[in-house]
Amino acid sequence: MIGDPLPTEKLEGQLLSKRLALPIFASDPLSSVAYAPQELLMILLVGGLAFLSFAPWVALAVVILLVTVVASYRQLIRAYPSGGGDYEVAHRNLGEKAGLVVASALLVDYVMTVVVSVASGVDNIISAFPGLAPFRVELAVVFVIILAAINLRGVSESSKAFAIPTYLFIGSVAIMIVTGLVRTIFGDAPVAESAQYAVHAESVGQAAMVLLLLRSFASGCSALTGVEAISNGVPAFKRPKVRNAQRTLVVMGATAIVLFAGLTTLALVSGVHYAENPCDLIGWTECATSPQPSLMAQVAAATFGDGSIAFYVIQAATALVLLLAANTAFNGFPLLGSVLARDSYAPKSLSTRGDRLIYSNGVIILGLAAIVILVVFQANLTVLIQLYIIGVFVSFTLGQTGMVRHWLRELRGLRAKDARAAKSSGKSGHRSAAEQHRRAAEAAAARSKSADDAKPLTHSAMVRALVINAIGAGMTAIVLIVVTITKFTHGAWIVFLLMPILFLLMLGVNRYYRDVEQEIEPDPTTVFGSSGDHAVVLVGRMQKPVLKALDYAIAARHESIEAIHVSLDEEATKQLQKDWIKQNIHVKLRILSSPYRDLSHPLIQYLKERRQDHGSEVITVYMPQYIVGHWWEAVLHNHKSRRMRQKLLLVHGVTVALVPWLLDSSDLLYGRRSRPLPGQDRRGEAVRQVARKPGGVEIKDGRAHPKG
Amino acid sequence: MIGDPLPTEKLEGQLLSKRLALPIFASDPLSSVAYAPQELLMILLVGGLAFLSFAPWVALAVVILLVTVVASYRQLIRAYPSGGGDYEVAHRNLGEKAGLVVASALLVDYVMTVVVSVASGVDNIISAFPGLAPFRVELAVVFVIILAAINLRGVSESSKAFAIPTYLFIGSVAIMIVTGLVRTIFGDAPVAESAQYAVHAESVGQAAMVLLLLRSFASGCSALTGVEAISNGVPAFKRPKVRNAQRTLVVMGATAIVLFAGLTTLALVSGVHYAENPCDLIGWTECATSPQPSLMAQVAAATFGDGSIAFYVIQAATALVLLLAANTAFNGFPLLGSVLARDSYAPKSLSTRGDRLIYSNGVIILGLAAIVILVVFQANLTVLIQLYIIGVFVSFTLGQTGMVRHWLRELRGLRAKDARAAKSSGKSGHRSAAEQHRRAAEAAAARSKSADDAKPLTHSAMVRALVINAIGAGMTAIVLIVVTITKFTHGAWIVFLLMPILFLLMLGVNRYYRDVEQEIEPDPTTVFGSSGDHAVVLVGRMQKPVLKALDYAIAARHESIEAIHVSLDEEATKQLQKDWIKQNIHVKLRILSSPYRDLSHPLIQYLKERRQDHGSEVITVYMPQYIVGHWWEAVLHNHKSRRMRQKLLLVHGVTVALVPWLLDSSDLLYGRRSRPLPGQDRRGEAVRQVARKPGGVEIKDGRAHPKG
């Protein structure tokens, strides 16, 4: 049984170029321009057509916040390049509990990303094909199922299939904006189909007016969702990681701002009237029967003509990029999972290169949660966006507050260092301010961990960063409060129920792992020292896997060895005894009777009895284990032995040795390239197996190194 | 590490008395009287009120069929007492494919049992509380979820909690029937609320009239569902098994007949008019808004008064017994699964005393299938019953046809034996007919396998059984054809789609196992013979489980031994090397580097390299395995080692030895009584663990026996 000289495999890492990284990280923030302008205008229109005059100012406020948040994350990426994102910032600067709040918010955020993106995608599809309107919820559920299925199969995010929709969306929407503005300049401004309808307005008092503006601003802020994703994916970029990540972030932010501003402008120019309750549109007779077209659809129809090719292209690109954004969630949470696992807030299995089973479970849970929420809220985009914003802005606010604290601490450290430097150089007279700044810069450079972060942080740079983050924290906190107050009874309470549950779960996991660590710390009281060495081979019928197990047990040359057969069927037992003699096996075969057709009970009784007689010996039980190639074969093998094994491991002194039997189908496993795992591209852990000529590993100085 | 003297456990079987068996097996057939009379009358009323005069005759036909089927199964139980039921009869008498058709029909049947019972239960609840009508589907889904949850937890069917609803139902409905009839005799006949409404009738030609009568008969035959359950549960009865099972069957059948006939009579006397489309009831103004009360509810209201205590008791008992009937399915399919697994048509893990994981999966699949069907058909009882009948009557028909063949074969064998006996005794002159019969009876007695089957089958007894089964087969075949034709487009096609899929799955499993059997048959070409014996202990950090694994590896005294650590973190590796020296461990520690944070790849490369150098030696890799007490702890441990193990087992010459480390929580496992598994009571495999004084097992003559 000498092994075949299989070609030695080499693992090659695959990191992301900026061009490939953009579609992966940008689909979420860019796709939100599909619904953010719509929600912004819709809330304003609650107060009536007159309120539309506020729209440019509200949109401007959103843009300012977008710029602020992008600038904030630029700083965050540099300060924390390990990919922990908001979670890490909160964890390190605000404490464990704050970090867990952010983590819970992010987990809810992932579910809502799937939900809102799919709901918006379906909305755009229905805007193109109104006949599908009665199947809104069903379509949404089907899309979630398709996304989950794709991710269960495993697909590499860095494939071109993902890049095309994003670039198509950017391109087509940009062309649409330009076309619409050019037409307007030349006097042929596009006119939306809802421009003709007046809007039923509620009379609004002054306090309510301010609240309305704030609500509109909050809804428009849904354009910010997804900006933080890059902060989690820094390790995936090619070197210099931080700079590439920052540049991609800025490009992404600029694109989002341009598209958002352009779309809002075009919507105002073409007079889109989008109402929360479609029948508030006075004059639209089919308000109860036809679906209200999305803002994107109306603008596209106004600019290019209803039913034109360009119209359908835009709808398709929008729907696709929204589905991509939903796909983001399936790939983002393993990232979060690995960071949480590293800190022991999630099962350890998430921390190293994925266990497909764990990730499959995660994909399924994420999918189910999204489906439940879609069904319960009937894929109503407006309601769902409110839930979405809360989770996102909790992590924004805490993340930026954490950064503020970070800068305060850095500044304090800087001042302390300067003070010490000033003291130690007191004798040589006070230095010029420039010289002091230079020394501070050097000290900052020394402190800077990242090798590719060439520019040291000066005092003024830190202050600037502090101000940016402080403004961002303030603004996002306002949004959070507004949304919470206005939407609590409309469903936001769900988020405030889920987050504490997740928080407590993660805290529980951490405390559990801590207790286990203490339990298994070596201590002087636990003494090891077994003696005696007995081997038991479990025999069912005379088959090759059993013969192999026997062979290995004999080769291991234990002190004593015996074969044990639990008799369930008289005929079969007699046949086995005959075969045993025929095969001329010199190991003693012991038969145990089993009155209740139970396999494990008689065996365990026997082992316990033996241990009482023989003291603290080690009993090695050899059992065959089938190795199969197809996933469905796992259902058909190994279950009885696994149950037996679980019971055997409870008996003191027992260790179970699994002897593999490779069924023919296991050939599939040898040639199989490992399938992509969700999130691997974002973790910088995409690896390819490359076959190399044999001779692969040489052992030098006690360490194994690849040859050649 | 000497084991504690744990008390030796003893397993005690728990078989069913007739009194406990009745509720378990009778809930399904008895509960169907809740909907069978309703469906029978409803179809007749399609032709108008005049057709109600046919009702007594149709009901009589149903009763005759019920008697026939009960008598048939009495024979089947005696002929096949191992619990295989219709499947086994078809398999042995009509061939493998027929057996699989029955098996597929039974699997569909189990799903439909859950669906129809829950839908009918919800119907009765809504009849008592009409305000719940808009939530029909949601209520049904919730009940399925509750049932699945209960069965996942595990509950013993033989508990009194199951017996009470069945006896309560029998008692209350019997009292209702008696009360109603007594009132009628004394001139105060009960009047149903729907008696006042005329029925909109379609004009019916003569051919259509016959078809209508046949459809009504077919719908009334839903009263037969569940009768066969006892044939699967014969092993669970106390001795004499066959006779007890037969008696329970007869009692069950008689009760069902009495309740069915009585309920139908009372419904006709009180003038219940139940229409498929409620608005066909002329005069009922709320037909579109209020739910149509079930027949049971109307009769109860008429007899005891609407809103009386007795009315609610009857509705409650009906709903409860229907839920019990649904629970039947969760317990019945493991039975079917074990029989199929025994014949290799299902995963082998189903054949011995349950793997909780497998059964949990089965419960979940059953629950999900039921929920999907309930949602798709909106819990519409009439449509669902048609689907139900098809599956049930496929197995009835094939089962009884198989029995016919069985008797024909037995009769042929009998005649052949008589012929041989007559030849051999030809010289001594022909015997009297009486003597010939006596000899035949003795021969039959000798052939009879069952020890508690005292009465030998005479020739006339066999002929009578043959006639009964033939009539039954004919009648059930007619029902099957009628339902298929009339309901194919209304949803029956689903059944005819599902059954072939299940058929092909089971056939595929059987062929797969057959191929594997051939693959692992011992043959002279495969030679075993490893030499060389190397032990590897995987070391992560210096913790007690690793020390124990090291201890066991040393105790096993392999030819050579080394410890291997895959380095993911420089700091941790240095710490380990320090601890290794501090703990004064004499085993060599080898460090493998891992550039891509992959645990298994470097190790596997090293092992393959070693094998190339050392030839066909056996490498035993020792790995710790955590044993935990809570189910949720399994998510938090062992995953990385399982992944490693799966990859290691692919390397030639490797065997993996699992060294258990019992965490404190595993104490829970020691005291834990095994939770009940679904179906265990019906399999006669309910066992209790009884603690006994130590000293439990003695080994005599190579066999282990319990002491004392």
Describe the structure.
The structure is a homodimer of 708-residue chains. Chain A has 708 residues and is α/β, with parallel strands linked by helices. The first copy, chain A, has two domains: 16-326 and 360-492, Up-down Bundle (Amino acid/polyamine transporter I), CATH 1.20.1740; 533-706, Rossmann fold, CATH 3.40.50. Helices cover 60% and strands 9% of the residues of chain A. The first copy, chain A, has 23 helices and eleven strands. The first copy, chain A, has helices at residues 18-31, 36-44, 55-79, 85-93, 96-128, 136-153, 160-185, 206-220, 229-232, 241-269, 295-304, 309-342, 356-376, 381-424, 433-447, 459-487, 492-520, 544-555, 570-582, 600-614, 633-636, 639-648, 667-671; strands at residues 8-14, 198-199, 281-282, 533-538, 560-567, 589-593, 618-627, 654-662, 686-692, 697-700, 703-706. In chain A, strands 6-5-4-7-8 form a five-stranded parallel sheet, with helices on both faces. The longest helix of chain A is centred in the middle third of the chain and has 44 residues, at 381-424. The relative contact order of chain A is 0.14. At the A-B interface, strand 1, helix 17, helix 18, strand 6 and helix 20 of A face strand 1, helix 16, helix 17, strand 6 and helix 19 of B. Strand 8 (654-662) of chain A pairs antiparallel with strand 8 of chain B.
